[in-house]
Write a sequence for this structure.
């Protein structure tokens, strides 16, 4: 019996997808629900599972081809026998990869690379995780994506805390260069996500009148609160108390006072939003994505921190959904994690404003006639001058600053 592997239903805003990677070859055995192929859209990567156990009989759409919803990608023959290699060599411990050979002598099953599901195999490669160190919770001890992220969380908690100012950017792998030895080059096609990012950035520059206003914030009070309640907060909520929950709370308070910042342009109309869906820019292996944290005015500090940690984890493993990447009334982006001291963030259409956080840096400040060293951060608010006046933009940013320098305001709503 043959089964068709089809492109899943795509959201209305997504017209098609590109075949990114096949994880099986024709003639190879497949398990039911095993990921056969990754499809790339302009927002997320979709995994297409096998509808039945058997053999991958035929691949109908090659890598790089553009496909639409419900198109047939491949044929799986249920219950079929996999092709045997022409000259199969006996397994040899000497030929095993060193990182797995060492684990083979340990008690319990060794997480051989072939045992990992394709999505997990890609994840451990992208995050440079040794699967022999990960405890699997799946059937028969299989490692799941959630196991990898749990391992990283535990590892991160065991290390000294790395705040915004201590983050170190990772170098991107450069594609191999070809051609003239003295002047080599390499042409690489943009991913759909990168192409979509480029399209939206150009759209923002061409359609909005973008201005940026700056200020700086003293994070001494926030640091003191985080230090004082760190252990109790983590014990109760299972997540560390970071900077972002304070910023989101301060932003929501300021948006409530200046609703035009939370509005958007819709043709000849100004569309005011009575809810506060905040986009949080997150770096992923495929580029920058902006998952949306909805109804932030109704969330506690603990709920915000948990949601942001979850976004970061699933952004790295490509597990964010379309719904989580759509909408939003305001965006926060944090260039400080890469060491940026000051920048002008660009709007995320159709939103009308975006807040840029930057590196926390100890600087001398004058307080009550004394020069003191304080943890300072520059803030940048880019906004659409078509509907937002400079007075509102500056006042909004000052309100955010006041909420962060005196967090009691966030509790009292003053």
């Amino acid at each position: 019996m043959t089964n068709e592997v089809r492109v899943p239903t795509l959201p209305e805003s997504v017209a098609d997808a590109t075949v990114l990677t096949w994880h099986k070859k024709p003639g190879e055995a497949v398990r039911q629900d095993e990921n056969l192929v990754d499809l790339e859209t302009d927002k997320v990567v979709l995994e297409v599972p096998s509808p039945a156990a058997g053999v991958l009989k035929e691949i109908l759409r090659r890598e790089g081809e553009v496909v639409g919803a419900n198109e047939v990608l491949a044929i799986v023959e249920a219950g079929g026998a996999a092709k045997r290699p022409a000259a199969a060599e006996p397994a040899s411990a000497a030929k095993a990869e060193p990182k797995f050979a060492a684990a083979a002598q340990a008690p319990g099953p060794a997480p051989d690379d072939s045992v990992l599901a394709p999505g997990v195999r890609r994840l451990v490669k992208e995050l440079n995780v040794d699967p022999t160190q990960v405890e699997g919770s799946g059937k028969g001890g299989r490692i799941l994506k959630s196991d990898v992220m749990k391992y990283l969380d535990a590892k991160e908690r065991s290390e000294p805390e790395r705040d915004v100012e201590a983050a170190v950017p990772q170098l991107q792998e450069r594609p191999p260069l070809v051609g003239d030895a003295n002047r080599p080059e390499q042409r690489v096609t943009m991913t759909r996500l990168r192409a979509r990012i480029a399209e939206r950035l150009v759209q923002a520059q061409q359609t909005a009148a973008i201005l940026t206003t700056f200020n700086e914030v003293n994070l001494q009070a926030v640091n003191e609160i985080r230090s004082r309640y760190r252990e109790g907060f983590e014990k109760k909520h299972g997540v560390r108390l970071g900077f972002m929950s304070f910023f989101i709370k301060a932003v929501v308070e300021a948006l409530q006072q200046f609703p035009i910042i939370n509005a958007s342009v819709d043709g000849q109309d100004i569309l005011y939003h009575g809810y506060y869906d905040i986009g949080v820019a997150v770096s992923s292996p495929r580029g920058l994505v902006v998952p949306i944290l909805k109804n932030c005015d109704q969330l506690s500090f603990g709920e915000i921190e948990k949601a942001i940690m979850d976004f970061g984890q699933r952004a790295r493993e490509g597990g964010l959904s379309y719904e989580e990447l759509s909408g939003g009334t305001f965006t926060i982006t944090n260039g400080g994690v890469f060491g940026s001291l000051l920048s002008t963030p660009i709007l995320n259409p159709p939103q009308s404003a975006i807040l840029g956080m930057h590196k926390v840096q100890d600087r001398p400040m004058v307080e009550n006639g004394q020069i003191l060293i304080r943890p300072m951060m520059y803030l940048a608010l880019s906004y659409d001058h078509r509907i937002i006046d400079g007075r509102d933009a500056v006042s909004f940013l000052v309100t955010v600053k006041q909420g962060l320098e005196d967090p009691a305001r966030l509790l009292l709503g003053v």
